[in-house]
UniProtKB/TrEMBL annotation:
The keyword Transport does not apply. Belongs to the D-isomer specific 2-hydroxyacid dehydrogenase family. This is Lactate dehydrogenase-like oxidoreductase. GO terms for molecular function: glyoxylate reductase (NADPH) activity; hydroxypyruvate reductase [NAD(P)H] activity; NAD binding. Residues 101-279 form the D-isomer specific 2-hydroxyacid dehydrogenase NAD-binding domain. The lineage of its organism: Bacteria, Pseudomonadati, Planctomycetota, Planctomycetia, Gemmatales. It comes from Fimbriiglobus ruber. It comes from the Bacteria. Signal peptide: none annotated. Keywords: Oxidoreductase.
Amino acid sequence: MLTPLPRVLADLPVSAAVLSLLEGRVELVPWDQPNGRIDAIYTYGHPAVGPELLDRLPGVKVVSNFGVGVDHIDVAAAAARGIPVGNTPGILDGATADLAFALVLAVGRRIVEGDRYARGPEFLHFDPSYILGREVHGSTLGIIGMGRIGEQVARRARGFDMTVLYHNRRPNPRAEAATGARYVSQDELLAAADYVVLTVPLSPETRGLIGSAELARMKPTAALVNVARGPVVDHAALVTALKARTIRAAALDVTDPEPLPRDHPLLAMSNVIITPHLGSATEETRRRMAELSVENLFLGLEGKPLKCKVGQGND
Ligand code: 8YV
């Protein structure tokens, strides 16, 4: 045990799994009360960690993030101050790809609408023409972002006899060999896909990646599925495209902002499915994320190399 107990600034409450790993080993300091010495920062995808915060807390030895996406952390500012940033890559790919595929199926077969209908007063008897969806099997899946999560989505698509196209900063021959996915330009992907799935990290290059021009390239029968980060999609353009039926539907596990204000037009659209950032939300994956993020935290506190450090090529 480190003595005195390291003081860790954290966005509280942390999950029970994280708490059980930290109890008695650190003192958790609430985010809005960074009083006294702070030895480390533990984050959950928010709030932002930037140069001002790091300069106010000169004792910080490590920033550990529960999650793979570190768009809320200024990693360069941390590096400039000699502070490593840890994250949890590799252990949440399967869960996030499962959710992406669940959303493809749900948006294709209109499962959420069907559930509402089955509970409501209009469902009096079977009708061969209600809630007709679009097929998933045999259709074309377009994956934008062929990293580890994209590859897992592509693997799942094989079981549904889908044609899989992908676009990425550069071709990924390993993923192609493993999944049969074919590299195409983003424009070609948008024009051909029945389902466009976004699995890119949020960065200055991917912010607003899908706007009105990109939505206009999609088929009017196609659906957009976002399990990446909300700001990858221009939400005003998405609302316009859905209203104009430029595309058929959307399924969003992430939004901009998150959550959406209660009067946001997307919340009133029956052809939109919204889930509350559930990509990695399984008991098994969240347990692994707790373990890895806490391991990174303690390695950083002890001045040792992190198990997963952002920028080391494994994020
Ligand atoms: C996290 C995620 O649950 O890993 C990520 O980037 O989006 C999710 O797995 C989320 O960031 C909260 O920590």
